């Protein structure tokens, strides 16, 4: 059966930076091809992509991942009915029970916040009881939060006790159904795991590889000092000293998107008046632009490493996804005037037709290339050369055609 798979391959150079720290504060690394490479985790780049969605999509198309989901529902309830603002504890109780019924996740106030509030009251201070929180991060779409808040509001208006109201099986089933429909774009793309209620989990449609350097790398340390602005002229020495680890690298970034799976996750989307393919196309376009242009923000104020990719190769396939990381199993070595981009592009341009030809993966595959500068000339024959905006438009149109037309 023909599938619709989107492969995104990116070469991106970052100067001295620390995009993604390990537990010691050093940039993450990995050994590949027998040498140590720079590495940025997939989690870091997926978060950066989700952050980029805020500039590309309506907030109603997105979700929120938080332990404070009861508080989020309570805010929606008060926004719907302003007379509830003086019933904080009761509103939070119904919100917490709605979340528990929907997800099975235990919702209670954190012990440390509860203790701090009690201590404050004992000292004669005003300290409202802390809002209940889930024991782990819950990922819910804006529409799911709206729907659960409406259900909690119904319960509150019934005059019943919150626990008694949600004890009834039909209400539990309704809450669970609300949490398992109208998924946001980010949930549909990156998935959701609810440990206590596996049947409302969402399998991710997108897979993101750890970005990895195409060449060997050594982590260096920047020893820095800071001067106290109020020091007198005769006061010498630094106000503080410290060390920041960093490295620089040309990264190979890769992501694969199962468009058919994305369509299943999204369902009919937000607007019943629009064709069923519209939400899929919008999600694909947002993912493509968001993934290409995003950058993890680790130590960004220290290094200001705001780069864009040197080259992007996008393939729309009819079978399985294919990573081209094998092109860099032999590390690229800087030659001549230096730099790794030119060598990386040559390695990629040589590897792609080889592996696709050997496995017949070049059939029914559309390819687009976005590239910058003469160092990327080797990629010119891989596909249709376009700008970023043309790429997003062309891929969106192609996906729409494969999904049945927009």
Task: Please render the helix and strand layout as text.
Blueprint: E1 5-17, E2 29-32, E3 35-40, H1 42-56, E4 63-66, H2 69-80, H3 88-103, E5 107-108, H4 111-122, E6 133-134, E7 138-141, H5 142-158, H6 162-165, H7 169-179, H8 185-190, E8 206-208, E9 211-213, E10 220-226, E11 240-258, H9 259-266, H10 278-293, H11 300-303, E12 311-317, H12 341-359, E13 366-371, E14 384-385, H13 388-402
Helix pairs in contact: 1-10, 2-3, 2-5, 3-5, 3-7, 9-10, 10-13
Question: Brief description of this entry?
Answer:
This protein is α+β, with helices and mostly antiparallel strands.
Search tags:
single chain; 406 residues; alpha+beta; ten-stranded mixed β-sheet; two-stranded antiparallel ribbon; 13 helices; flat
Name the structural class: alpha+beta
What is the count of DSSP helices, taking H or I runs of 4+ residues? 13
What's the order of the H and E elements?
EEEHEHHEHEEHHHHEEEEHHHEHEEH
Q: Which outline best applies?
A: flat
> On the 0-100 scale, what is the average pLDDT?
93
């Amino acid at each position: 059966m023909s599938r619709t798979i989107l492969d995104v391959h990116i070469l991106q150079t970052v100067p001295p930076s620390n995009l993604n720290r390990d537990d010691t504060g050093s940039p993450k690394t990995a050994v590949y091809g027998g040498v140590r490479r720079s590495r940025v985790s997939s989690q870091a780049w997926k978060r950066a992509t989700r952050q980029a969605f805020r500039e590309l999509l309506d907030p109603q198309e997105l979700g929120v991942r938080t332990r404070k989901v009861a508080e989020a529902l309570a805010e929606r309830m008060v926004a719907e009915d302003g007379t509830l603002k003086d019933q904080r504890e009761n509103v939070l109780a119904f919100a917490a029970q709605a979340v528990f019924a929907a997800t099975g996740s235990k919702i209670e106030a954190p012990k440390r916040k509860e203790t701090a509030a009690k201590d404050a009251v004992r000292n004669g201070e005003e300290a409202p009881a802390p809002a209940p929180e889930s024991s782990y991060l819950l990922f819910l779409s804006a529409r799911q939060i709206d729907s659960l808040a409406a259900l909690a509001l119904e319960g509150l208006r019934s005059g019943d006790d919150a626990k008694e109201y949600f004890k009834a099986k039909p209400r539990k089933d309704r809450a669970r159904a609300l949490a398992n429909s109208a998924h946001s774009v980010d949930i549909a793309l990156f998935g959701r795991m609810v440990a206590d209620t596996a049947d409302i989990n969402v399998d991710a449609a997108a897979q993101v590889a750890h970005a990895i350097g195409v060449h060997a790398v050594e982590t260096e340390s920047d020893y820095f000092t800071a001067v106290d602005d109020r020091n007198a002229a005769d006061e010498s020495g630094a106000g503080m000293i410290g060390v920041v680890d960093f490295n620089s690298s040309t990264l190979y970034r890769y992501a694969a998107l199962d468009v058919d799976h994305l369509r299943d996750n999204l369902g009919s989307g937000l607007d019943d008046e629009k064709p069923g393919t519209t939400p899929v196309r919008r999600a694909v376009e947002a993912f493509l632009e968001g993934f290409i242009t995003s950058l993890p923000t680790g130590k960004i104020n220290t290094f200001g490493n705001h780069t864009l990719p040197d080259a992007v190769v996008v393939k729309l396939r009819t079978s399985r996804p294919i990573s081209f990381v094998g092109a860099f199993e032999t590390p690229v070595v800087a030659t001549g005037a230096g730099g790794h981009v030119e060598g990386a592009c040559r390695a990629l341009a040589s590897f792609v037709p080889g592996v696709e030809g050997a496995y017949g993966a070049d059939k029914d595959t559309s390819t687009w290339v976005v590239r910058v500068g003469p160092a990327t000339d080797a990629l010119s024959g891989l596909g249709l050369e376009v700008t970023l905006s043309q790429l997003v438009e062309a891929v969106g149109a192609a996906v729409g055609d494969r999904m049945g037309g927009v």
